[in-house]
Design goal:
This protein has two domains: 69 residues, Glutaredoxin (3-Layer(aba) Sandwich), CATH 3.40.30; 110 residues, Glutathione S-transferase Yfyf (Class Pi), Chain A, domain 2, CATH 1.20.1050. The longest helix has 21 residues. The protein contains nine helices and eight strands. The strands form three sheets. A four-stranded mixed sheet has the order 2-1-3-4. The protein is an alpha/beta fold. It binds glutathione (GSH). Glutathione binds next to helix 1 and helix 2.
Length: 226
């Protein structure tokens, strides 16, 4: 299986299937296609990444990739039916919602940013994330969102853990501990190290970060545009 992804520093959608595959020890080859380089339309029907190619089958959306993997691999979703329904709902909510978090707190792993504004709409989305995380941890007993093992729902919130690190939103102790737990997973540490080492800079993503607030720290390698 070949997984096309974009820059590890920026690509929140790419991180989801990547961390799921790595955390579940499912073998795959990755191909990183930096933003602004070769068009994604050469391999992805939507022109977007992530895109998984498995023989003759192309799967071009992160949620569809999780479902495709679930057809052949145990543990993508929780074994318990109720936990599985909850995990799917929470993943779908992340997949189609949280526009303010997505737009204002864009993923930029190497930066620490002091937000300029914290509009009510953004605050309420962070509160929703916090309550969703606490609900999963309480109901299924942790340490992961839908029980004792990492599953697709954790992968869907993995980019949020990097956003927590970058923007320090107000979170309950339980939610903050969960974000830290994700950041400490070995695939997450590997992704983070690779993100910091990247020297590509994408103007759009950099502008988003500047719009969000003041950069307190930039831990990335030496800058290069393109
Ligand atoms: N819903 C899609 C979203 C994928 C997406 O927006 N990917 C971004 C990168 S993080 C992309 O490919 N952007 C390229 C472009 O817009 O040209 C998914 O879940 O895979």
């Amino acid at each position: 299986m070949l997984l096309y992804i974009a820059n590890k520093n920026y690509s929140s959608w790419s991180l989801r299937p990547w961390v799921l595959l790595r955390q579940l020890d499912i073998p795959f080859e990755e191909r990183l296609m930096p933003f602004g380089g070769e068009s994604y339309t050469s391999f992805s029907p939507s022109g977007r990444v992530p895109c998984l190619v498995d023989g003759d089958t192309t799967v071009w959306d992160s949620l569809a990739i999780a479902e495709y993997l679930a057809e052949n691999h145990a543990g993508i979703w929780p074994a318990d039916k109720a936990a599985r329904a909850w995990a799917r709902c929470a993943s779908a909510e992340m997949h189609s919602g949280f526009q303010e978090v997505r737009n204002i707190c864009t993923m930029n792993c190497g930066l620490h940013i002091k937000l300029r504004d914290f509009p009510e709409a953004l605050r309420s989305e962070w509160e929703r994330i916090d309550s969703l995380w606490r609900e999963g941890l309480d109901r299924y007993g942790g340490p992961f969102l839908a029980g004792p093992t990492f599953s697709a729902v954790d992968a869907f919130f993995a980019p949020v853990a990097f956003r927590v690190q970058t923007y320090s939103p107000p979170l309950s102790a339980a939610a903050a501990r969960y974000a830290e737990r994700l950041l400490q997973l070995s695939p997450m540490r590997e992704w983070y190290a690779a993100a910091l080492a990247e020297t590509w800079r994408d103007a759009g993503h950099e502008a988003d970060a500047r719009a969000a607030g003041e950069t307190i720290a930039d831990l990335r390698g030496t800058s290069r545009t393109g």
